[in-house]
Amino acid sequence: MSHRTNQKKSVGGSSPLSSAELTRIGALPFKTPAEVRRFLRRTDGMEDIAAKTGANLGGQSLPGVDASVITAALAQVTELHPAEQALYSLYRRAYESRLAADSQTMESLFTIWRVVNASSDRALIERFQFLGDWIARHRAHGSRATAAPVSASPAPDSSGS
């Protein structure tokens, strides 16, 4: 086994992740959209209030929750947040690079169709008619060139809290 396997890697200046950490995160279960919609969203100071609440509970247990539930959830938040930050920067790079490749592909297709359509060669136009039909179908939905870019997922909370 290579000695590099156990080295931590710095990802875009974010927290370093080892290959073991990446494997562990990759094994986490996916959540369904319905599950995600039901999640409660964090607010500022959540960790501090949760820790104080857990401490005030002491050994006492309330129906459905006790200090150990809060402690375990906070430990998971603390463990996953740095990984989320590092992986988000990688995700954005891949996503934005794919968008650039999509754009380049579309630009090439439009250019080809403009050149073909502007030619007086009927055989060439008929040969590429499928392209013209496809462009007409998709252009009918309107151009998004003036719309603000949409992120595929929200940026992770960078407050660290």
Strand-helix topology:
Elements: H1 19-26, H2 33-38, H3 46-57, E1 61-62, E2 65-66, H4 67-118, H5 122-127, H6 129-139
Antiparallel strand pairs: 1-2
Low-confidence runs of at least 5 consecutive residues:
1-15, 146-150
The tally of strands reads 2
Distance between the termini: 38 Å
- The share of residues in extended strands comes to under 5%
Radius of gyration: 25 Å
Briefly note the structural class of the backbone: mainly alpha
Overall mean confidence score, pLDDT: 81
Number of helices: 6
Order of helices and strands: HHHEEHHH
Approximate helicity band: 55-70%
How many strands, which pairing sense, and closed or not: the largest β-sheet?
2 strands, antiparallel
Strand numbers in spatial order across the main sheet: 1-2
Q: Write down the overall geometry.
A: elongated
Describe this structure in words.
The protein is mainly alpha-helical and 161 residues long. The chain has a domain at 15-25 and 43-57 and 64-139. Helices cover 59% and strands 2% of the residues. It has helices at 19-26, 33-38, 46-57, 67-118, 122-127, 129-139, and strands spanning 61-62, 65-66. The longest helix has 52 residues, at 67-118. The protein is elongated, with a radius of gyration of 25 Å. The model is unreliable at 1-15 and 146-150 (pLDDT under 50).
Summarize, please.
This protein is mostly helical. Helix content is 59%, strand content 2%. It has a domain at 15-25 and 43-57 and 64-139.
